Design the sequence.
C-alpha cells in the first residue's frame, strides 16, 4: 500500500481553485495520483478530492495545516486531510441479526477494509461468539426501554476509551439519541433495509411485500438526528416477484444490506465521501 | 404466431385445482404449451395461467364458458379466457413529453406489441405529428382546470366509439377521475417516474435529486382511484451519482419509463398479469 | 418447514402431460403447492416441476415409484422425486481463497441452505481454521502435479465414506478428471470467475482487465468433462470502470462469485434445476 | 447550454501535471467546471479531462494551440481541444433493422445528442422512410459481395462531401475494410449484439441461446480493423431465463443495443472518451 495523503475540500466556487490546490501540492513536490473535482453549479459549491504520494512530499502532515491554511482561509474552504497509512478505529454495533457483522469481519480479515475494528457493541448477546472468534472485545449494552439513556452512556464510555473514529450500525435496531448522533457527526454509518425514501421506519420488508413492489433495496447512509433522513452513501436493489414470500425478501435483502454497508464503509475509510446539503459526493 | 387460448384463474385454494383445470383442457384435446401456477399461502389464494393450442381443441371459445362454468362455480373461480389472435384495442394518452409514445409506436410497428393502437388522445397538441406519422387518429382534448369533467366526457365518447379495451397513460400528466378509473378497471396502465412508493405524487425527479438518492426508478402500474397506489406491474432503476444534474435524472428516467411501460403493456396484452389484493402476479 | 414432495420431469412433449401428472397427484390426495411447466418447442421437450404437501398424500415416497412408473414409462419420462425434509450431504471443495467457503458456511448457519455440510476438502491447509470453527471435518488432499490422480483417489474415498450427494467447488482451483465428473453427474457445482463464455480458462480477471470490459461477471455451472462448458445455472455481473485496478476487479468479483454460487447451490438443494441439452431450466 | 472548452490529455506521468494544466487555464482566466484525472499506474500513463467556461477566458480556441504547445511538448502530451458549441457532423449507417436508428433520431430530436446528423447510409433501402421523416438525406449504397470496395468508395465520397466527423454503425451488418477504419480512427462507433468478448462474430443471440446463458448483453465500441476487438465504450446486460426463446433474446437485446449505443455516442460527442492501450477511459 502506497503512503499517500488525501485532501477533501468544499467551498464556494471561484476561478482557479483547482490550479491553486494542485499548485500548492506541486510546489511541495507531491505527485498527484488522483484528482477529482465536482462543481455543484446550483449551489455554487466547489468540491474536490485529491490524493498524492507522500514519498518526496516536503511537508509532513502536521505541518501541512499551517502551510495550507492561508489558501484555505482565503477561499473559505472546509478541508480535511488524511494519511492513508493511518487506520481509523471502528466500533461495530449490531443487534440480533449478524449477517452484516459477519460480512464486515470477513472483509476486514482479507484486507478489504483498511481500519482497526476495535470492538463490537450490542444490545443483545447473540453476536458475542462471532466477535470473540474474530478476536474482538464484545460489549453487551442491553437497552432498557424505560432508561434508554443508560445504555448510551455506557456506549459513550466505550467509544471514548477506544478513541473510536467511526461507528457502523450493522443492523443495530435501536434508534440513537440526538446526543449520540451529535457526538459523531458524519461518523456513524447506518444500513436501512429499504430503498430510501421508500419504507422509512420499521418493517420495510413487510411493507414492501404488502405493497407488491417488484424490486427491493437497501440504503447505507450517515445517521443524523432525523431517522432514515441522513445523507445517502449507497443504495442497491434486487428484483423480486410474486413467488417471493416475505422470507425471501428478507433473505435477498440480507445480501443487499451486506454489500451496501460494506461499500459505504470502505468509501468512508478511503476518504471518498464528502457531505454537503444533506447529500453525498462519493469520489470513486 | 400460434393460435392459442389463455386462461387466467384465481380462486380460494383447494386440492386438485391444477388437475381439474388441466384435465378439462386435455379432455377437450387441448395441448398445453405453458402452465404456470402460484399459491399465495398467506391468503390461501390459488392463481393460474394456462395456455394451450387451439389446433385440435374441440371447443370454440364462445362455447368454452358453458362447458367450463360448472367447474369454475364449484371452486369459486374468477376466470378470464383470451384468444391469442384477437387484438385488443388500445388508446394511448399522452401530454407534452412524447418519449413513451414514440417508443410504443415503434415497438408496435416492429411487432413487439400485439394489439391495435386505435387512437392517441392528448390534452396538448404537441404529439399530433407523431400520431399522424403513424397513421393514427389524434384527438386533442384540452383540460380546462375549471371543468375537468368536460375533457373526460369527450374522452369517454372517443373510447366508447373506438371500443377501447386498454388505456395506456404514456406520460399523461392529468389525474383521472374515479369515474374514469371505474370504467376501465385494471385496464388502465400508468407509468410513474419514480420507484414507487418513493416519491409518490408530483416532481419525483426533483425530489429524488434533492434527497440525493443513488438510484432512480420508474414504475408501471394499473391506475386506481388512489393516485400512484395501484397494483405495480413492473419497476426498473438506474444508478445516478453526484455528477448527475436534475436534467440527467430526467434523461435517464426517460429510458426507465419507456422500458417499464412497454414491458407492462406487453405483459398485459399477452394476458400474463393477474391482480389480487392490490398486487400483481406476472406470469413470465 | 412444510413436508413436501418435489417431482422433476422431462420427456418428449405430448398432449395431456400436465393433466396426467397433476391428476396422479390429486388421485393420491396430494395438494399441489407449486406447479411450473416449460415446453421447449424447438426440441419438443416437456419439462415440469411440481411440489405438493405430503400431509394427506396417500403414498409414501418409496412406494411412489411403482405407482408412478407406468405413467412415466408410457411417456418416456425422466423423473426424479425428492423429499423436502431430507437433507442432502454436501462436500465443499476450496483452495486458498476462502470467500465462497466463508459465505456458504454463514448462509448454512442461518438456515439459507437446507443441507448437511459434511466436510471441507482442500488442496491447501489455509481453510482449515474456518472449517474447524464451523465444526466441520477438514481434509487436506494436496495435489502432486506429477500424480494428480492420487489426490482424487483420496477424495473419492472421503466422498464415499461421507455418502456425499453434492460437491461444491467453492473456488477450488484444480481441474477435475473425467472420472471425478462422471462419478457425480450434475452433482458438482463450480463457480467460474467470469461471465461465461467470456474468459474461459485461467486468469479471467486479468484478461477482463486487459480487454477493458465495462462489466465483469461470475458464473455458476454444473461441472462436466469440458472445462467451463457445463450447463450454466446462474450468472451475475457488476459494473467496472477505468478507475478499477485489477485488484478492484478481483474484489468486486468476490461478491459476484459468492452470490452466484450460493444461489446455484440453493436452487439445486431445493430441486429447482433441470438439465437438458447442456442448458438448465431453473424453476424459480 | 454553456459555452465551454474541453481539453483531453494523455501523456507519460510526471509530477505537477494537474497543477501545470490547471494553472495554464487559470492564468488565462478560465473557470474550471469539471476536472477529472486518472493515472494508470501500471502503464505510467496520465489522463485528464478538463472543462472550463469560455466566458472570460482570454484565448480564443484557435490561438490556444500555440499558447499551450510548449507545455504539451515538454511533457509529451497527446491532447485534443473541443468547443462545446461546435456540433460534430454525424453519419448513421444502418442495415435492415432500424431500432437503433429510430432511437438515435428520437434522442437527437429531443436534444439528448448534441450533433448534426448529416445523413443516413444503408446497404438496404428499408430505412429510407425513417430517414426522410426526420428530414435527413438517405443514401442507398448496396453492397455487391463480389465488389465490396465499390460501396465503400461511394460512402467515402458521401462522408467527404458531408465533412463527417463521426460514423455510427447503428446495426450496420457489413464488415468495414481496413481502409475505412483507418480513415476514421476512433471516430467509428459500432454496437455489437453481445457482451464482448463473449460471442464475437456473427449470430451472437443464436449462440447465447444455444449456450444457455442467463444474461445477454450488448457492447458499443470503437471500430478497429480487428472485428469486435476495438476499445469498449459501454456494455449493458439483461437477465434471460429458459422461458426466453431466441426471439425474446433478440427483443430484449434491441433495448440493450439502443441504450448502449446511445450512451457511447453521447459520451463521444461530449468528449468524455479517451483511448489508450485499446481501452477507454470514460470521464462521466
Sequence:
Amino acid at each position: 500500500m502506497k503512503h499517500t495523503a488525501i485532501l477533501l475540500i468544499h467551498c464556494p466556487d471561484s476561478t482557479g481553485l483547482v490550479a491553486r490546490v494542485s499548485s500548492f501540492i506541486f510546489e511541495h513536490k507531491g505527485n498527484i495520483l488522483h484528482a477529482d473535482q465536482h462543481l455543484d453549479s446550483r449551489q455554487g459549491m466547489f468540491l474536490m478530492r485529491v490524493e498524492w504520494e507522500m514519498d518526496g512530499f516536503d511537508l509532513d502532515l502536521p505541518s501541512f495545516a499551517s502551510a495550507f491554511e492561508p489558501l484555505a482561509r482565503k477561499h473559505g474552504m472546509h478541508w480535511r486531510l488524511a494519511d492513508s497509512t493511518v487506520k481509523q478505529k471502528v466500533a461495530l454495533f449490531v443487534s440480533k441479526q449478524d449477517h452484516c457483522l459477519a460480512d464486515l469481519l470477513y472483509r476486514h480479515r482479507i484486507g478489504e477494509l483498511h481500519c482497526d475494528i476495535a470492538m463490537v457493541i450490542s444490545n443483545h448477546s447473540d453476536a458475542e461468539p462471532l466477535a470473540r472468534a474474530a478476536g474482538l472485545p464484545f460489549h453487551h449494552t442491553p437497552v432498557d426501554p424505560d432508561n434508554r439513556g443508560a445504555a448510551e452512556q455506557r456506549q459513550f464510555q466505550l467509544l471514548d476509551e477506544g478513541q473510536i473514529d467511526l461507528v457502523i450500525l450493522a443492523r443495530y435496531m435501536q434508534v440513537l439519541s440526538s446526543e449520540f448522533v451529535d457526538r459523531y457527526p458524519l461518523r456513524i454509518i447506518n444500513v436501512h433495509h429499504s430503498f430510501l425514501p421508500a419504507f422509512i421506519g420499521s418493517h420495510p420488508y413487510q411493507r414492501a411485500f404488502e405493497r407488491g413492489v417488484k424490486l427491493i433495496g437497501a440504503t447505507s447512509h450517515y445517521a443524523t438526528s432525523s431517522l432514515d433522513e441522513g445523507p445517502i452513501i449507497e443504495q442497491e436493489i434486487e428484483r423480486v416477484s410474486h413467488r417471493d414470500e416475505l422470507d425471501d425478501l428478507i433473505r435477498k435483502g440480507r445480501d443487499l444490506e451486506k454489500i451496501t454497508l460494506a461499500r459505504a464503509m470502505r468509501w468512508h475509510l478511503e476518504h471518498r465521501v464528502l457531505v454537503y446539503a444533506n447529500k453525498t459526493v462519493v469520489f470513486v
The first helix of chain A runs from residue 17 to 27. Chain A touches chain B at residues 38, 40-41, 47, 195-199, 211-215, 217, 231-237, 241-243, 245, 277-282 (CB under 8 Å). The first strand of chain A starts at residue 4 and ends at 12. Chain A has a mean pLDDT of 96.
